[in-house]
Automatic annotation (TrEMBL):
Protein name, UniProt field: Nucleoid-associated protein SAMN05192576_2455
Record note on quaternary structure: Homodimer.
Gene Ontology molecular function: DNA binding
GO cellular component, one term: cytosol
Main location: cytoplasm
Name of one Pfam family that matches: YbaB_DNA_bd
């Protein structure tokens, strides 16, 4: 008869199958949340809608829309301003996507990682 090495912990140890099942459920929930984020589209706008970008919930750039008549394609300054506005609109949309992802994934990620560790994304790698 084989002795359970976890008997020394009292009560027969823990149920490895239950632990694995819980881990699998969490992985499935995480995958479903990531799929929902990928399907979500968020707009970022600047200059009263002169430039709008669309990103999905994970921050991938999906589209750039530029309002007609607002920019002169032959003017270098206008084109430079347009580039700056696209970047600003993307940053707006990306910050919204990051907040949405934090809400969707936060509970699945344990809300802040391991005790004594900084929240994920703040480890510097």
């Amino acid at each position: 008869m084989t002795q359970n090495p976890f008997d020394a912990l009292g009560g027969g140890g823990f149920d490895m199958n239950a632990l694995l099942q819980q881990a699998q459920q969490m992985q499935e929930q995480l995958q479903a949340a990531q799929e929902r984020l990928t399907d979500t589209v968020i707009d970022g706008t600047v200059a009263g809608g002169a430039v709008t970008v669309k990103v999905n919930g994970v921050g991938d750039l999906m589209a750039v829309e530029i309002k007609a008549g607002g920019f002169d394609g032959s003017d270098a300054d206008d084109l430079s301003d347009l580039g700056d506005m696209i970047v600003a609109a993307y940053r707006d949309a990306k910050s919204q996507a990051d907040a949405l992802a934090g809400e969707a994934l936060g509970p699945l990620a344990g809300g802040g990682g391991l005790p004594g560790m900084p929240p994920s994304g703040q480890l510097g790698f």
